[in-house]
Amino acid sequence: MPWEKTFDLDDAIDRATDVFWAKGYEATSLADLLKAIGINKGSFYNAFGSKKKIFMQSLLKYEREQRRDTLAELASLKDPVSAINKLFDALIEQSLTDKDKKGCFLVNTALDLPNHDSDIEKAVKKGLKDTESFFEQQITLGIQTGAIPEHVDPEVDAKGLLTLLVGLRVLARGVFDQNSLSAIKTQAIGLIQ
Length: 193
Description:
By secondary structure, the chain is an all-alpha fold. It has helices spanning 9-23, 30-37, 41-48, 51-75, 80-97, 105-111, 118-145, 154-171, 178-191.
């Protein structure tokens, strides 16, 4: 008799994401995943194949539903300075309301890249590059519309904004308070003025 899944795959991936996000890849055991998802080992392997495969699915789902959708929504504003401001405001708000101080799943994974293989590394690099591209596009649009001065270098300053974003996400995990996080945002906006 063929294996038949009796649980929702999206829900299972969300539950696995919560565990990976809280504990990291290395510290997450198969037992942690089975408990969180509420399935047995056979069902887990039939549905996902391995811990690495469900981690990749978790990372890609997070990437698609969190970062990519947020950036698309902000880009649709057609006001690049406002879009960048709103992004940093949203990240600060998320950080201050995150009781568990989990930070960003993508950034957390980037910090742990030496423990991952090339597939995970490619996914993380793509997510970060896409964020940098968002900044570069917003700066270019801002220069074209006159909202951002012409002396701002889209390529260089996009890298600077990404660096400040990553720094904010790392330091918001318990090192920096609201004033300090706001200072990072001030530095970010200073790059495009």
